[in-house]
């Protein structure tokens, strides 16, 4: 069967330890190829957990290039891209959209004290649309 005549989905899962890029045949839902690129997490005192957004991008480029090298005809027929990633991270950017510091990821617990005070009702918000995620004390 000529795989180049199929349609494909390229999916990205930006996870806590790495980015997995997967090429999927749309008709059969079969995984045609995949590549995982790992990146480091910086941890430190007080519950610090941070990652570099530049590492996320580099892992995305690496995964795309690896799959393109192994499946050059298939990647010409990618009809959709899907993305998912870890939740509740903070990426601080400048006016041009470039990150200016490492990202604080969901495992970071440096705000545990503030979270506990908020749960006890000492911190309130007048904007419920800004507080739609339940608070946790990681």
Main features:
138 residues; alpha+beta; Nucleotidyltransferase, domain 5; 4-stranded mixed β-sheet; 3-stranded antiparallel β-sheet; 7 strands; elongated
3D structure, described in words:
The protein is an alpha+beta fold. Helix content is 22%, strand content 29%. The protein has a single domain (3-122), classed as ATPase, nucleotide binding domain (Nucleotidyltransferase, domain 5, 2-Layer Sandwich), CATH 3.30.420. It is built from 3 helices and 7 strands. The strands form 2 sheets. A 4-stranded mixed sheet has the order 3-2-1-6, covered by helices on one side. Strands 4-5-7 form a 3-stranded antiparallel sheet. The radius of gyration is 19 Å and the shape is elongated. The model has no long low-confidence stretch (mean pLDDT 87).
Looking at CATH, the homologous superfamily is ATPase, nucleotide binding domain
> How would you sum up the global shape?
elongated
Could you say what the CATH topology is called? Nucleotidyltransferase, domain 5
Which oligomeric form is depicted? single chain
Task: Name the CATH architecture.
Answer: 2-Layer Sandwich
CATH C-level: Alpha Beta
Mean pLDDT across every amino acid position: 87
